[in-house]
Amino acid sequence: MSVTTGPSTSLPPLLFGDNQFFGVNHMSEEKARAQAMRFQDISAVQAVLDAAYEEGVRTFMCTTHERIALVCDHVRANPDRYAEMTFYPCMPYAHKYANAMTEDGPLGALRRFLPDEGFLDAALRGGRSLARKDIAGITTLLIDSEMKMFAGLRTPVIFLQNVVVDLLLGLGFDEAFRIFADHVRRRYDAEPGFITMNTPKLLQVLDSLGIDNPIVCSNINKVGFRMSGGIEAYQRMLGERRFRAIAMSVFASGAIPPREAIEWVCEQPNIEAIVFGASSRTNIRATRELVEEYWPHRRQVDQVPVG
Amino acid sequence: MTTKIGLVGLGKMGLSHLALFNAHPEVEVVGICDSAGFMLSVLEKYTGLTTYADMAVMLEEADLDAVVISTPSALHARMVRAALEKGVHVFCEKPFCLDPAESEELAALARSKGLVTQVGYHNRYVGAFQEVKRLIDAGALGRVTHILAEAYGPVVLREQGVTWRSQKGLGGGSLYDYAAHPLNLVNWFAGESRHAGGSVLNPIFSSETDDEVYSTFSFDDGVTAQLSVNWSDESQRKMTTKITIWGTMGRIYADRQEVQVYLRQDAPLVPGYQPGWNVKYTTELTEEVWFYLRGEEYSAQVDDFVTRIGKGALDGVNSFDSAAATDRSIAMLVNDATDGATSSSTTVTAAPPRNRYRRLVPALIRKVVRR
Fold first, then answer.
1. What CATH number is associated with residue B72?
2. Single pTM value for the model
């Protein structure tokens, strides 16, 4: 059976990311901490999201961090204010699992995050060997538990985070990509998306699984930062392969000046969207204007007047 | 040339290693081994890898060039010995052995058999820490006087159940899991420690082991180092390791993201640096890797091991000999903390004696496996 991710969902040229809200900064731990302090209060996060919304950047690509649930509540409570607000959930929030694995081991971590402990216990009881349906069952339960916070909101694309994608990719656990893609399509009527640091290798595997024209989000930047397989391989893929590319880390954590970074990314063939993070309306606007300048044929939705 | 590798232990680090070795273009994974039937059956079914429930059987049946051992720390010595005696190269997770006498014995055994060895101190493959090493070796700081080595993270945040990581006898606790890393970096920068004093191994939430570790080490030439570790620190998003070094000509601060260097006017010239402040970021200090999972350093250490096997290079960044120095430092710290008196390299013995482990370990493993 082949899963096709067709162009039914068009991606806006700019997606708003959330690293800045959670103390993630690939450049400096000091800066990360300052951001964690600034965004401690969810109203500070909401204020920046509002600024992005008013600038016409209305798709929020966010991890399933527990604090995002507060943003979801706010958007649900104000449907008129956020009529066009769209979420692209990225699951799971990996540190939650990694820290739990250090403490409890892989099985213990799984047990901790499954909504219903009975399922795992029942599955393990029969001779300590898990059947295919059990793996699919556990995976879909985990997906559903991560998706709970988005109930009633628009989530047309759902991503699997890079730590999980790249772990599965390295292990050769290809079947999991299909389980994820099938479940996300069936249960949420959404396009599956894959975040990775290893695009060339991932595309090969998705191709072999018959997952055609997949949405793949990865680092794409002028200095080749975290583009495993090499910047040339990425450029070749963009030129030749059928996939829907989203570029992240386009500024390489600030190593490339904004204009130079955006100009280069916009020159690459077949990139559908850029995901970026910013903490102020000025920076959001500056990025939007640069993208409009270098992608003149692609427009964000019209901006909402301030106030 | 393809290197045939078997992996033993499929916990958090074992799975990560499996993904990286399996993705390496010059490696064929010919066997995986774990005591948990659940993990083995899932991986066998979905990845097609050959599985073994017993390492001895894998050593016997699989056509191995090397093994990767990521089991609870107390099992390392026995498993490493079995692998070396079988004549295969060994990559072992950190810490190497709980008893430094065994670390030295195994390092000697590997050398006598001409086998490549490596221990998973991945911080030595972090671009920022490599830059610190380069600066220290170039004498940029003049005479180094003091090092502050820190690690903090949010692992044990409440009282909870028992796994091998929460049991001292199995090599659990923040000392072996966290403190070993900054201590290993200190050994890299300052050499072998000679003395440990004022050592603290404190539980915060754990019932059987330490959640925070503090100690002051001294080295040759009057260099001192302070170690400060706490894995019950919720303010951290994930484990963070930090190094600060003071010298007569300046100061270096480094974590895995960046290096901040202050050099005095008369400091020796190092290319790329100027007097005053210098900041270098991970983006410019990090070499790209063939496959990325959790950080370039994990991929780089795997690649180094494979490359060294190909070349038959017995000396390397994290050889058993080098890891044994960290095991000795850990033992010094444990003796100092448990005796309440200072200990020195002339009096260091293994932290608890080996015979006790031989009795203790099988019982603890049974206890953990039953859970």
1. 3.40.50.720
2. 0.90
